[in-house]
Amino acid sequence: xxxxxxxxxxxxxxxxxxxxxxxxGLIRAVDGVSFTVGFGETLALVGESASGKSSVARAxxxxxxxxxxxxxxREPGGEAFDLLSAGGRARRELGIVFQDPYESLxxxxxxxxxxAEPLAVHGLARGAELARRVRELFERVGLESSAxxxxxxxxxxxxxxxxxxxxxxxxxxxxxxxDEAVSALDASIRAQILNLLADLRAELGLSYLFIxxxxxxxxxxxxxxxVMDCGRIVELxxxxxxxxxxxxxCTRALLAAxxxxxxxxxxxxxxxxxxxxxxxxxxxxxxxxxxxxxxxCPLAEARCxxxxxxxxxxxxxxxxxxxxxxxxxxx
Amino acid sequence: MSALxxxxxxxxxxxxxxxxxAAVDGVDLELGAGETLALVGESGSGKTLxxLAVLGVLPxxxxxxxxxxxxxxxLATLAPSERRALNGRELxxxxxxxxxxxxxxxxxxxxxxxxxxxxxxxxxxxxxxRAVASLAEVGIAxxxxxxxxxxxxxxxxxxxxxxxxxxLACGPALLVADEPTSALDVTLQAEILALxxxxxxxxEMALVLIxxxxxxxxxxxxxxxVMYAGRVVxEAPVQELFARPxxxxxxxxxxxxxxxxxxPEARLAAIPGVVPELGRGPTGCRFAPxxxxxxxxxxxxxxxxxxxxxxxxxxxCFFAAEVRP
Lengths: 331, 325
Hints:
The complex is a heterodimer of chains A (331) and B (325).
Chain A lengths: L4 E13 L6 E14 L4 E5 L6 H8 L6 E7 L6 E3 H4 L1 H4 L2 E4 L3 H4 L6 H11 L5 H14 L16 H13 L5 E5 L7 H18 L2 E6 L2 H7 L2 E6 L2 E7 H6 L4 H8 L54 E5 L2 E4 L10
Parallel strand pairs in A: 3-8, 3-9, 6-7, 7-8
Antiparallel strand pairs in A: 1-2, 1-4, 4-5, 9-10, 10-12, 11-12
Chain B lengths: L4 E12 L2 E13 L4 E5 L6 H9 L7 E8 L2 E2 L5 H10 L1 E4 L13 H12 L4 H14 L5 H4 L9 H13 L5 E5 L7 H18 L2 E6 L2 H7 L2 E6 L2 E7 H6 L4 H9 L39 H5 L5 E2 L6 E2 L10
Parallel strand pairs in B: 3-8, 3-9, 6-7, 7-8
Antiparallel strand pairs in B: 1-2, 1-4, 4-5, 9-10, 10-12, 11-12
Helix pairs in contact in B: 3-4, 3-6, 4-6
């Protein structure tokens, strides 16, 4: 099988000290994560904060040291190149769009220069050719190319996100990593940016790794979804499968927490005043043994503390890691 | 019956390069005891400044005009000390970032107890007991122990609960909650909303929930006021607003949401254009440049917020009857 991106057993660890002279602790931010992203496909990576989803993005882009295997391909059946060891040249295949474009744009650089910078740094274009490519990128993301001489603060949040997308596209990547790319945008602008991402995918044949905490978005942007908790993927499947029949209790809790967005479907406040099913998240420095979700899990049993559950295959395109799935009849 | 809170023709302006720019431009609102109202708007809509004006804590550079009445009394006539006493006892506030309400060098028990000693004039021991009870009420497990914790020892959700305990310690008649769940994970967001709904009912407290997220409104309040570029453009009971929006902006916002039943690959109904800059809105209706129903009249004169035939509904659109859901 060949895919745009193949990630196998990706691990990211951070060593931290507790206090100034405290003992060293190890945080497994990403702990053996494997997935693929197909050609022209969008895979959504969802989870709560500190679930490891952004660490996956940073590892793919070489922003944090990581172990594992990450292979990329430009076209179906094409030669695979190793993204983790290949360095800058291969990483041109990946672009990234962060949540806050203001932080990825230099305030002292005109936005035209900001978009031109990656092209100039990689020596891909100069002079008139560079100017032409920049104009093209501006038009592609729906900005007037005359805005090139302005500075980031002169743009609204939505326009800045368009700039960040233009900059990410400058090197002609085939896979865009969108890390909460629309989370900070106002509602009336968010749909514009989501539509732009959809158009770019169709026109350029891009693949997306779409990282978000917002499950309501997943349904409209992605074909498949991977749910992360405590550094691992706990469930992965097509969007219709996961939304219709979420198999992992963590996925169910995330789906149940999505506001219905319709007062007729208002949830009964059955949770009452106490901590709900989300409970308290364990410290990443002292994860519970076995399945780290068990301390928040309504289905926890003795063996959950003993070992991490193996993948249960639910369909050729859907799996989850939960001991409780042993009790349910296979479809 | 006089309202608990009434806001009349509220304007908040800032001076920039000799120009007066209106961030809040003629807002009228009314809230009865025990009522819940959501103030919905995007960034720059003026929703937070409206709340800060009500609480009397506008930034120093802001100029305010208009009338604010609390139980019928004009808030402008209160002495600063009376105003502080009112804020402590009757009017409570929680923000998006609970860390801004909590002092890092005191335990959460001490901070809740201090509010009670200052505003409810309780003694040390009584204040501590009430503080622990307050922490229990907002769902903090093992409150006797947790009262001794410092803010940094708590998770984000627990900090927001502690900030709520502090705000609610004196039994306020009105809680103003500014994006109380925006910084929280979705599962925590659901818990805090459920907690708010529970507290509002249990205490018969009024609530103004400020949010950019229409989906939250559907969960948490009975009435909604939608703001755009400094003005209230529509007000309605929450059911009616979702079923039959009476302002093109509300309708467009509702349509632009990702829908559960949408066909895959369907494009979202985006609203074209951008939110006008502070004080740079067009004359006439500020939504006109982005509106699908726009006519000549809309850019000539500003539509007033007027009552519709249905009870409890107001819309600031000349063509409210033509708005499609």
